[in-house]
Amino acid sequence: MKFRVERDVLAEAVTWAARGLPTRPPVPVLAGVLLEAATDGTLTLSAFDYEVSARVSVAAEVDEAGTVLVSGRLLADISRNLPSKPVDVATEGQKVQVTCGSSRFSLLTMPVDDYPTLPTMPEATGTVPGDVFTLAVSQVTTAAGRDDTLPILTGVRVEIDGSRMTLLATDRYRLAMRTLDWNPGGSDAAAVALVPARTLADTAKALGASASVDLALGRTGAGDGLVGFEAGSRRTTSRLLDGEYPKVTAIFPTTTDVSAVVETASLVEAVKRVALVAERNTPVRLRFTDGQLTIEAGQGDDAQASESIEAQLEGGEVEIAFNPQYLLDGLGALHQPWARLAFTQPTKPALLTGQGEADAEADDSFQYVLMPVRLAS
Question: Which residues are CB-neighbours of 276 under 8 A, at least 6 positions away?
């Protein structure tokens, strides 16, 4: 194998393919990236760890077609640090020579025959704008569980109903749901899948700059099903999580007695400052009165802090407490200048939504439900 490729092209391609490689693979070859140079001037880079696959094709000047397997992380580190010149790659025996200007690297190869076959991309289900997809995924994955002992909650439930897509995630302490319009392959499109949140987040970040992202669902809901994403020359697949997602939509409040509208940035800064005195796992208290919200933390002999900001209150006065980080996560996911917090009572879940103006209607396309912390009497 022998080819020449531009440094930036190679670096981007290797970074994309190697981004999800395991640090401690159960089999050594799973740490590799497969390079396939074809006589038509195409260089294809692939990676697969039996859970997630990544594949990208780029243009290259191919003198000799061939296939080789090398350490993905090492090749990514090298390609990012090469001088801004064309890169020549060629095999010599059991090694791969990488030359760029006066820089020269010699990499050991891995046995190609031991490398697993990449899964076939499922048939495309529809497309979604890249920026919309990236934002929606980032909003929802902030609430996904990170406890591997509860694998179901480490996923994002993706439901497709015609031209409507709904993303849902929870870690039992907060719940995030985002609905968006997309372009299905057919008007009767319907599917439900549970996608690993970490994989979904990484994929959205990597593909979001594209104009549109193709979504492909295999056997919906099955443990051996696949979900695929494709944008341009990049494609990735992931196994779906197996199991029934809990019916958490019933947690969303259907009616609320009290609501308050606060400037998002002001609330974020105030919570950050007040939370500085909050001990680990202790809440911040929010006391809503007419025209004002007071945030407090600490009590008794401990360090204490308080800050008041303007708030538009509808309903009676209320005091409620939250885990400060969970509250900040929700506010950060709004991407709206104003935040609306709605309650029924201090012991019931609170609903957080965003809006463009202080006196506008709430934007229900993103909803964040936060479980309150019970206040000591």
Answer: 305
Whole-model pTM over 0.85 = yes
Chosen CATH of 124-249 out of 3.40.190.10, 3.40.630.30, 2.60.40.4070, 3.10.150.10: 3.10.150.10
Q: Tell me the CA end-to-end span of the chain in Å, nearest whole number.
A: 74
How would residue 224 be classed by pLDDT, with cut points 50, 70 and 90? low
Taking each continuous run of H as one helix and of E as one strand, the counts in the chain are 6, 27
Question: Regarding the domain with residue range 2-114, which homologous superfamily does it belong to in the CATH classification?
Answer: DNA Polymerase III, subunit A, domain 2 (3.10.150.10)
CA distance linking residue 265 with residue 313, whole number of Å: 18
* pLDDT score at 221: 40
Please report, rounded to a whole number, the percentage of residues in the chain having pLDDT higher than 70.
98
CB atoms within 10 A of CB 281: 7
pLDDT in tens, 99-144: 999 999 999 999 999 999 999 888 888 999 999 999 999 999 999 9
CB-CB contact of 333 with 135 (8 Å) = no
Closest residue by Cα to residue 217 from 232, 229, 233: 229
**Contact (Cβ atoms closer than 8 angstroms) between residue 168 and residue 131:** no
